[in-house]
Write a structure and sequence with these properties.
- The protein is mainly alpha-helical.
- Helix 5 packs antiparallel against helix 7, helix 5 packs parallel to helix 8 and helix 16 packs antiparallel against helix 17.
């Protein structure tokens, strides 16, 4: 009897309530959480958060249901981009220690299934955004997906150490999308928020690449520490952090933020600069490799996440306080 016949016979003898065959589980991705992992939920949380802030600080109020759908579209689009990214990067993910257990290189989800999943979510999110909000927001959402997939993932990531600098624009779109969903337009205020995330991305990812440089080198990804060395990367982290602090003050110049945001921007900026200086002054060998296990870089990476969440939170709180003050007059 063939293996196929044996499997059919086993299936015929199974009770209705019994677990499915291992082949079925493999087709489904073993566990539902594998399909969630494909969406890069940690990255998605930051994308959704900054998109929500862009929507909340926009001058045009949006119906709560339509706003919720718009935020859902941003989440789905971010997840779609993550799934397509994992499909394309499955070869390098397999040789990097921190990504080797992702669903595709680990064999729990096939590349074809992951690609179809990502493309379907991308198309659905754009169409839903257009119908629920407006087609300007849908267009910017589609642009963000295309930029992440084609410009960052396929073109830049494996070719240049500027992958994070230019590719950082991919993660900077959400405030623009949220603002456009609420207003149907693009203005200077959300462009300033775009620029904040754009300049935040290099020091955030370069701090990570300092303590993950061996993984990137093994995979052949030309991250800055691999190409230019750790010492140059430390200087670039400081330079971009200085530019980030300056750009974070632009909303004040535009009149789209007030005193509360100003205090947060200055305080958080000083904190980020302190971490950048600590990374630069980390004890190093002659090649610039950390002698402390990259503790300052790890601390800077963690703080960078706190920085962005707190800065955008302060912007939303500033707008809320300003609105309440206007209503009380």
């Amino acid at each position: 009897m063939t293996d196929r016949a044996l499997r059919q016979g086993e299936g015929a003898g199974r009770g209705a309530g019994e677990a499915p065959l291992p082949e079925t589980l493999a087709f489904l991705g073993s566990e539902p959480r594998d399909w969630i992992v494909l969406l890069k939920p940690r990255v998605m949380s930051l994308v959704v958060y900054t998109g929500l802030i862009g929507l909340l600080v926009a001058p045009a109020p949006m119906h709560p249901v339509r706003a919720a759908v718009a935020v859902l579209c941003i989440a789905l689009a971010a997840g779609a981009s993550g799934a397509i990214n994992m499909w394309y990067d499955r070869d390098i993910d397999a040789v990097m220690r921190r990504t080797a257990q992702r669903p595709i290189p680990a064999g729990r989800i096939s590349p074809e299934a992951a690609l179809g999943y990502g493309v379907a979510l991308a198309v659905f999110s754009v169409l839903l955004m257009g119908l629920a909000a407006n087609w300007i927001a849908a267009l910017v959402l589609a642009l963000s997906i295309a930029f992440y997939v084609f410009v960052y993932t396929i073109w830049l990531k494996r070719r240049t150490p500027q992958n994070i600098v230019i590719g950082g624009a991919a993660g900077a779109f959400p405030p623009l999308i949220g603002w456009a969903a609420a207003t149907g337009s693009i203005e200077l205020a959300p462009i300033a928020l775009f620029c904040i995330i754009f300049f935040w991305t290099p020091p955030h990812f370069w701090a990570l690449s300092l303590f993950a440089h061996a993984d990137y080198a093994r995979a052949g990804v030309p991250m800055l520490p691999v190409v230019a060395g750790a010492r140059e990367t430390r200087w670039q982290i400081l330079i971009y952090t200085l530019m980030l602090v300056a750009v974070s003050l632009v909303p004040l110049a535009l009149g789209s933020a007030g005193l509360l945001y100003a205090l947060a921007a200055v305080g958080l900026g000083c904190g980020f600069l302190r971490h950048a200086v600590a990374v630069l002054r980390d004890r190093q060998d002659a090649a610039g490799i950390s002698l402390t296990g990259d503790r300052p870089a790890k601390a800077a990476f963690r703080f960078s996440i706190t920085y962005l969440f707190a800065l955008f939170g302060a912007l939303a709180l500033d707008r809320l306080v300003a609105t309440a003050g206007w209503l009380s007059i």
